[in-house]
Amino acid sequence: MPSPAAPPLSIQGYHAHVYFSADTIAQARALCAAAAGRFALAMGRVHERPVGPHPDWSCQLAFGAALFGEIVPWLNAERAGLTVFVHPLTGDELADHRDHAIWLGRSRPLDLSAFLPPRPPSPPDARPLHITLRPVTRDNFEAITDLELLPHQEDYLASNSYSIAQASFNPHLQTRAVYADETLVGFMLYATPGETGVPGDYSIWRFMVDAQHQGGGIGRRALERLIAEILAQGGVRQIGISYVPDNTAARRFYASFGFVERGIDDSGEMVAVRACGGEAGG
Ligand code: ZN
Question: What's 146's domain CATH number?
Answer without folding.
Answer: 3.40.630.30
